[in-house]
Amino acid sequence: MKYNQLANSDLKVSEICLGTMTFGQQNTIEDAHQQLDYATTQGVNFIDTAEMYPVPPRGETQGRTEAYIGEWLKKQQRDRLVIATKIAGPGRGFKWVREGNLKINRAHIKQAVDDSLKRLQTDYIDLYQFHWPDRYIPLFGQTEYNPTFERHTIPIVEQLEAIADVIKAGKIRYLGLSNETPWGVCEFSRTAQQLGLPKVVSIQNAYNLLNRVFDSAHAEACYRENIGLLAYSALGFGLLSGKYVHNKPLEDTRLTLFPGFGQRYLKPNVSEAVAAYVEIAHKYNLKPSHLALSFVRSRWFATSTIIGATTLEQLKENLESVNVVLDKDIIAELDAVHTRYPNPAP
């Protein structure tokens, strides 16, 4: 396992991060602990979660993922692990989180951090992320910005000042963003630099062979501001594992269990692009999952690739992808498919 420095922080994170959003919904606490044990024995030191997990989000399960991790974490050597979690932002209608008031303000940041610390059974969080911007932005699968949807927002300076407070209190170490835009990256960085407030060190956005939107403006903004990408949905909601090729129905998968949750992947040209990528994998005697994960890992801006699994077998297969290095010929073929089907699932 390779370890990468996360921007200008002192965090060294494994190139594979264990995502946990299925813990508490598709995975029992026993499953979760088995995955955590196996991943860490394979060199994974980076674990990502969120206060809203598991998904799909429901009031009766909210916080269960952090609680499952906490039961495991209390038995571990804490300083060998990098734990990341997130505060839910407005715009998603989660009425069971802080009574539906999800503004990322000083009081809510303090409450959310304290609640996560309690569930995680730890004294500090290594990386604390804003799950969505407080302001309006297009969400999953939406590609057009519409200013008529603008709403009242907590100023970025207030958000950073609140983060400075919890950092000073020793409750978190670093700040990250998630589902953020290039403008947001630059504005957080500018505000922090001008006012001497905590600088953002990471951005957690979707990135995969079906969604390479990050390649352009996001990549430039993060390069100039020294911010590392934590790529989520690297397998495109499981599509890039090849298991859905030819519309093969599978039971107990995210797309069949939660059909409304993967709308960004149910768009024109997605199935055609997936089939083309799977064909390339077979041509080079690679598992489709290894091809997809290795591609994300190969990108110069990717600090860590987040993987998630519902079975230990899936986890093992995904972790084995670290042994695959794509040569320039394979990359060229992937780029050719991307030219033919550019970003079908943004």
UniProtKB/TrEMBL annotation:
Listed A to Z, the keywords are: NADP, Oxidoreductase
Q: What's a Pfam family in this record?
A: Aldo_ket_red
Q: Which InterPro entries match?
A: AKR, AKR_Detox_Biosynth, NAD(P)_OxRdtase_dom_sf, NADP_OxRdtase_dom
Q: What Gene3D superfamilies does the record tag this protein with?
A: NADP-dependent oxidoreductase domain (3.20.20.100)
Annotated Gene Ontology MF terms?
oxidoreductase activity
- Indicate whether Oxidoreductase appears among the record's keywords: yes
NADP-dependent oxidoreductase domain spans which residues? 15-337
Assigned protein family: Belongs to the aldo/keto reductase family. Aldo/keto reductase 2 subfamily.
Annotated protein name in UniProt? Protein tas
Q: Which organism is it from?
A: Scytonema hofmannii PCC 7110
Quote the gene name from the UniProt entry: tas
